[in-house]
Amino acid sequence: MSDSTPPMRELLGDDAPSNWGKWGPDDELGCLNYLDAGEVLRGVQHVRSGEVFTLQIHMGRTEAPGDPLWPGREGIKRQNVMDEGTWDSADAPQFPGGLHYADDTALIFLQGSTQYDALGHVWYDGKLWNGYDARSTVDAMDRASVLPIAEKGVVGRGVLVDMARHRGKEWLDKGETFDHTDLEAAAQAQGVTIEPHDVLVIRTGWMKYWYELNDPATFYTDFTEPGLTYSRELVEWFQRKEIPNLVTDTIANEVTSEPHTGVALPLHCALMRNLGVALTEIAWLDDLADACAADGRWSFLYAAAPLKVVNGTGAPVNPIVIR
Ligand code: UVW
Q1: Transmembrane residues, as ranges (predicted)?
Q2: What ipTM, to 2 d.p.?
């Protein structure tokens, strides 16, 4: 952080939009509380053709370019501990009747694939979502871990805004930004309205870029992803719209270099820490976007549940869209 970089609190303001306390002093779900049974039924109304899309990227690709990751994280390390080779050895377990089996283990960054962030994943000034003490993250997240999200399950009406297609591009440029006014304009051009309590799914084309570029060195140069850019008006829009969940095909869900503020990842703090918006990152949206563009239907039933990792800071997820 340079001397001229303001601290997060200075950027977001002492009176930053907040939902702390809205769902009680022990809440760990934040805006996902908006997704009640009525919202599930509202989502179901947007199923028309029965097409199913899964939004997780492949986990543990061994061929180039591997898996897209936040710098510093590593892809899943999966290895067989039992397979047909094992059964050649004398000490292989024996089963009556001759059944053989394969088994494996994996070492993973829980945020190293398509993932839900725990609401407590980021903080500033020593406090995370709902005002919980950030020291509750030491060794294992006691408050606002990913588990409550996993227990609940996220189901509702989803709406896809295809920013790349709207701008006539295969993918947005490095560092290219957009805000709520751009989202509204793109949605209007698509003929869909972003309604209160919608799971907001935004395509930038960035995952396609990762696989087609096939060059991690270039991809990570300056690590300037495109994405949403911070403004107070944007945060107020999210609060007013009561958006429960933001899903994108980028690693960080927001532009990763903030030239106009210098503060890194302010929307993680403004949306997740202060409002309680669940963040889902690294989603594969291209197949869904192609189908939506083909018949002009951009709303659907969205359903997802991250793995039930006790005390996890996040967890992999394979969201499902039915349209
Ligand atoms: C960090 O963990 C810093 O970012 P993300 O939530 O995008 O993975």
Answers
A1: none
A2: 0.94
